[in-house]
């Protein structure tokens, strides 16, 4: 499909027209794609998308409508909206990856966030079962960052490390991290003698806002001034690019083997934008002389070297060995905190929209839903 460009093109609808020179044909020799065009409506928020989908105004949709808060609406309106719901499984390692900015511009926050005992304490302070019950209808199993059980790289020790909800244990680690002193409000004091404050800013997508509010409340209970607020997405992006963010919550990529191999950005900082826990280490890996690059610790340097070898590996066995060694370091360093395994979601498909698989795989590296043969989708009128 090719984008339609011209003076009559709407700013609220994107139109992609069939490419008559597309190289594929079906088994009977018919030119693909079957559809004459694809039309994408631009909505202002996810509520509007969900309502349009429930009213039968969308032919296929998975983004946003699968969130737990919309699930009853989607289920209850199947007959009215003349659509079906397809089970959809995510390639992510975790429903929510919590990424403290280990490369923060603020040197005091950088020191605090790089303290492993501090991160362990925060992990033990999270009531993951309460998050699962409140946000994911109780179906999401608590887990820390780790490849999925069927990925070939799952390790129980990694998924379950520092997972227990234990306020006393959380306080013990935070004390041992060097932040036992508190102010009159009970907020822990950092190495500069000032209260430890984390600007817990989240964008409203894929339940991140709901999870963020609960986790921030948990961290307040152990003496962290976690100030929760909603953040507009463009500002969120600007913060990351400027290295001014305290924390980022996002889906944890790298759950399936393919996603892990293509996109290991939460296991080692491979992206100067999307490895939000260590963008300046990623920058150093690309160019050590870049003005804002920060030299990473030896363990991360080792990961970079191993990943270079992984990308040049000649055999599958060598790839597996190298990735396992990378994950050994990830497990030991514990840079990113997880919440739970990603629960299954749904894709909405109109009943007359055909050749859509009966199950879908949802992932960014995958990328959904391009590999399932969208050129063979058609309307059964």
From TrEMBL:
InterPro entries: SBP_5, SBP_5_dom. Pfam families: SBP_bac_5. One of its GO terms (molecular function) is peptide transmembrane transporter activity. GO terms for biological process: peptide transport. Residues 13-255 form the Solute-binding protein family domain. This is Solute-binding protein family 5 domain-containing protein.
